[in-house]
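Why do we care about 3D structure at all? Because function follows from shape, and shape follows, mostly, from sequence. That is the central idea of this module. The next example makes it concrete: a single protein chain, its amino acid sequence, and then its structure expressed as tokens.
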Amino acid sequence: QVQLVESGGGLVQAGGSLRLSCAPSGRTFSSYAMGWFRQPPGKEREFVASISWRGSRTSYSDSVKGRFTISRDNAKNTVYLQMNSLKPEDTAVYYCAAAPQYTTTISLYPYWGQGTQVTVSS
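And the structure:
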């Protein structure tokens, strides 16, 4: 069974940084586009960032642009989300996902991880 496993979440003060990692088990996703999404408490899941399979193309939501950076290391089969200048409104469960084509549309990602909690205190 294909699984994506996120790690690196936790509790951090506002202004701090965290780096999330996502690695698959069961198969390689080096030829897939990868995305990060988040679900704040009581809200719907939303797009955060995406990266093409070569890493040459990235997209960000307006709310994280300039603060978050998505990257990937295909040799390690791992995708990262570096989160800087964190704000309390970044508090959410963060999910990584894989898609066969580059997209920012949540419904086009067929493979998902279980999520990792990020809590930013004020």
